[in-house]
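Minutes, project check-in
Item: structure for the 208-residue chain
Input as provided by the requester:
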Amino acid sequence: MRRPIVVSCVLVLAGASAVPGALAKKPFNGNICGIPFGGELAAAHISDPCVKGKTRNHPAKRSPVGGSVGSTIYSAHWGQAHSSASPSHYLLIEITKYYGSGNALSLGRKLLFGEVLQNGYPIAVGNRASLATDTYSCAMNPPTGDCTKGEVLAIVGNYFVLVGLDDAPPTIAGAEEGPAEDEAQDNEQEETIKGPLTAIAKSIAAKL
């Protein structure tokens, strides 16, 4: 489900200006498990407990374009990633905090903004964000055999946020298998995860 972050872009984001009012907030403590509300998880068909990932620290290093950059990466997931044996209900959240100084910051921010926009269509989360959805073959989710995945990428002040959802919303009983019907079913399934994904991303942005 997770797509790799483009290191050449993100490692120069550190120290970008925070959103107005950010200084009034308490610093993010890395507790991703406590961010999504119960209703948001239920809407995303997530019932498994949260599993916190190991915090990864990358000390600041000098950048070839000037200044130095470092990052701290926090992650957590709910459920099991998709396998061919069964459909999955899997949520992944990854939050990367950047810090540093120098001319590399403005260049990195521009590159990362472009990466976010290429991911999908813009949504109103943080400084800039995008949402992409798709369906894929999932034989254990009859009758159409489709499951759905979606991803939000967002920039919130000094943070880069990834929210990935792998879902198996119920398909329509007795659905036809023709091309037109299949496309309509795909669109309907993708619509079911846009709301929960966006809501979770907004909750994250409010904490950063």
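Outcome recorded: The chain has one domain: 7-16+28-207.
No further action items on this chain.
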